[in-house]
Write a structure and sequence with these properties.
Blueprint: H1 8-11, E1 18-21, E2 33-36, H2 38-41, H3 55-70, H4 76-93, E3 98-103, E4 106-111, H5 113-125, E5 133-135, H6 144-159, H7 174-181
Antiparallel strand pairs: 1-2, 3-4, 4-5
Helix pairs in contact: 4-6, 5-6
Length: about 180
């Protein structure tokens, strides 16, 4: 959904038997879609999941798919270009404290564990909620100026020693610990 023409398969005129799509279909909501040929999907099978029938997720998927079909502003290339601009502006603030690393509309914040914790704490206080991942979607792309302003304030506060951690150091998710072992 973030790839030009909405998917690699569509771009290259590939018609897969089955295709799995995830978060981009729900504009950031937890979701997954299994789609494919009718003769496969209409056979006897059973699939279940935590968010099956979750109304906000289904609505997010519906809106996202509607926009992708009918709204010329829903442009994956434009979204990736905007993300690259945000990355450049963010990294110009103080890449030695925290920087954005990655490609496309999903990138990671990189820095020391303490700086990342202080950064996230400051953003939460500014009512900007994020993990150690920056995710730009068609709903959030209109708030990049607010994100950059809050990020600038947070990073300057960290650099000037004007911010301290409230509470214990956050624990890293298991997935991150596994990636760090590689």
């Amino acid at each position: 959904m973030r790839y030009p023409s909405l998917s690699v398969a569509k771009k290259w005129s590939i018609y897969p038997d089955l295709i799995c799509l995830a978060k981009a279909c729900g504009n950031g909501y937890k979701c997954g879609i299994v789609a494919g040929r009718a003769d496969i999907l209409d056979s006897d099978y059973f699939v279940s999941g935590t968010y099956f029938g979750h109304i906000p997720t289904l609505k997010a998927i519906e809106v996202c798919l509607h926009l992708s079909k009918h709204d010329s502003k829903y442009d994956a290339a434009d979204l990736n270009e905007r993300a690259l601009l945000v990355k450049e502006q963010f990294n110009a603030i103080s890449p030695s404290i925290i920087r954005l690393d990655g490609w496309g509309a999903r990138m990671n914040f990189v820095g020391s564990d303490l700086n990342l914790a202080l950064f996230r704490q400051s953003l939460i206080e500014a009512r900007i909620f994020t993990k150690n991942t920056f995710f730009l979607n068609h709903a959030s792309k209109h708030h990049t100026d607010d994100f950059l302003m809050a990020s600038h304030f947070a990073i300057k506060s960290i650099a000037d020693g004007k911010i301290s951690l409230k509470g214990a150091m956050p624990r890293k998710p298991v997935s991150q610990l596994v990636r760090e072992r590689r």
